[in-house]
């Protein structure tokens, strides 16, 4: 009996041809000539700048996953095992402001504006710093009350702290109402003379006689104190100066 082997051979050849046709149809050629249009290299230990468009997760051992991402123009940090449901912790704005900061717990925690406003009294025009900020420094040098007048006192402040002037009690009060004074606790216990239009001020800071009614003190408890008691200048013959600058 004769067997025809041609039919199986033809069927196999057709199958191979069809498979090759499908493979060719499914393949997309490169979109550019080498070395253009290469796929992006993975993040590596190279020295060149690298970037990726999606969030980047960091997880060590069994700890929670931290994600670094971008929302709008903000750099955002999130926590959670899944990026889609991770919770935003803090963000950094393009102007350098750090947002979404929780109220402090430990001594070295950052303080957010809402917390600072609440601690400084709150209310209309109080505790919300807008505009300038009044920086305060105390001179290392001690002086007797004859400062050569206000101009002399201004010069002594500027000698230690360029751009600073002899503090006026009115400016300290005005900036304090807006919450625009430095935190006094950073100074420890420090005190210095401060000028006031309502006081004798040792004959305008030209004499060691007369009365002085105003001095500025920083208290460890975290508050500023303007002393309004009338003291003889002779009893305060040596003191630092409180120097101010709006920044």
Tell me the overall shape: rod-shaped
Could you tell me the mean pLDDT? Answer: 77
Following the backbone from N to C, one meets helices and strands in this order, namely HEEEEEHEHEHEHEEEEE
What is the straight-line distance between the termini? 109 Å
Low-confidence stretches: 121-126
Rg measurement, Å: 36 Å
What count of helical segments does DSSP give? Answer: 5
Q: Based on helices, strands and strand pairing, what is the structural class? A: alpha+beta
DSSP E strands, number:
13
Strand content: 15-25%
The major sheet is characterized as: 6 strands, mixed
Helix content: 10-25%
Key features of this structure:
247 residues; alpha+beta; 6-stranded mixed beta sheet; 5-stranded antiparallel beta sheet; 5 helices
Structural overview:
- The structure is a single chain.
- By secondary structure, the chain is of the alpha+beta class.
- Helices cover 22% and strands 22% of the residues.
- The strands form three sheets. Strands 6, 7, 8, 10, 11 and 13 form a six-stranded mixed sheet that branches.
- It is rod-shaped, with a radius of gyration of 36 Å.
- The termini are far apart.
- 18% of the residues are buried.
- Residues 121-126 have low confidence and may be disordered.
């Amino acid at each position: 009996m004769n067997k025809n082997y041609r039919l199986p051979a033809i069927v196999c050849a057709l199958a191979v041809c069809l498979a090759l046709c499908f493979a060719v149809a499914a393949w997309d050629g490169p979109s550019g000539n080498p070395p253009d249009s290469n796929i992006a290299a993975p993040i590596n230990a190279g020295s060149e700048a690298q970037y990726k468009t999606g969030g980047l997760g960091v997880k060590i051992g069994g700890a929670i996953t931290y994600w670094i991402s971008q929302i709008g123009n903000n750099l955002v940090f999130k926590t959670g095992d899944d990026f889609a449901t991770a919770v935003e912790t803090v963000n950094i704005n393009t102007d350098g402001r750090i947002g979404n900061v929780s109220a402090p717990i430990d001594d070295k925690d950052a303080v957010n504006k809402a917390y600072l406003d609440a601690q400084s009294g709150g209310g209309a025009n109080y505790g919300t710093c807008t505009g300038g900020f009044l920086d305060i420094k105390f001179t290392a040098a001690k002086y007797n009350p004859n400062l050569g007048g206000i101009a002399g006192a201004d010069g002594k402040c500027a000698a230690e702290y360029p751009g600073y002037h002899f503090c006026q009690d009115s400016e300290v009060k005005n900036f304090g109402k807006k919450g625009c004074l430095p935190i006094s606790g950073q100074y420890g216990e420090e005190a210095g003379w401060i000028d006031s239009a309502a006081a004798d001020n040792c004959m305008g800071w030209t004499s060691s006689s007369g009365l002085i009614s105003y001095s500025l003190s920083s208290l460890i408890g975290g508050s500023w104190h303007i002393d309004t008691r009338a003291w003889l200048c002779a009893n305060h013959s040596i003191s630092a100066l409180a120097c101010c600058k709006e920044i």
